[in-house]
Amino acid sequence: MGLQLPGELASLLGMLGYTWPEADETKLFEMGRRWMSFSGSLGSGIGDAEGAVQAVWGGAAGQGIDAFQKNWDAGDAPSINLNTATGGAVVVGAGLMVIGAIVLFLKISVIVQLVILAVQIAQAIATAVVTFGASLLQIPIFKMITGLIIDQLLSMALDVVLGE
Q1: Which of 48, 99, 101, 116 shows the smallest number of beta carbons within 10 Å?
Q2: Do the Cβ atoms of 84 and 55 come closer than 8 Å?
Q3: What Pfam families does the record point to (predicted)?
């Protein structure tokens, strides 16, 4: 289970018109690790296949073996596709880990902003008597500023994910 929003801050987030993201950064990190592990498994399987192919080539001869060797070394051969898949698995794994880090950063940043908003609201309420209620007029402004900051955080995260 990823980072969860403390219950006290959930109502603040709701007041601002946002919901807590369902993305689970721990699962994203785990999926990334598994893809990278799969890359290693795939690489060792390719090595085993290459060894078996070499044994076939070394122990037999003929037209069928020549055709097999030609197809094995062709541009769209299984060995080339498997090697490409190994690199692709690493890229997918790294991408999932980066997305997990972005989700974690975004969640922490939102929590920090909500804590700041809660403190600002508490200060406005605490000084309401002294200011004859004028400090309460700041609360909508604090909410608007926090909403704008959360919008900017979401925009920055999307820009990173989309590569803009």
Answers
A1: 48
A2: no
A3: WXG100_2
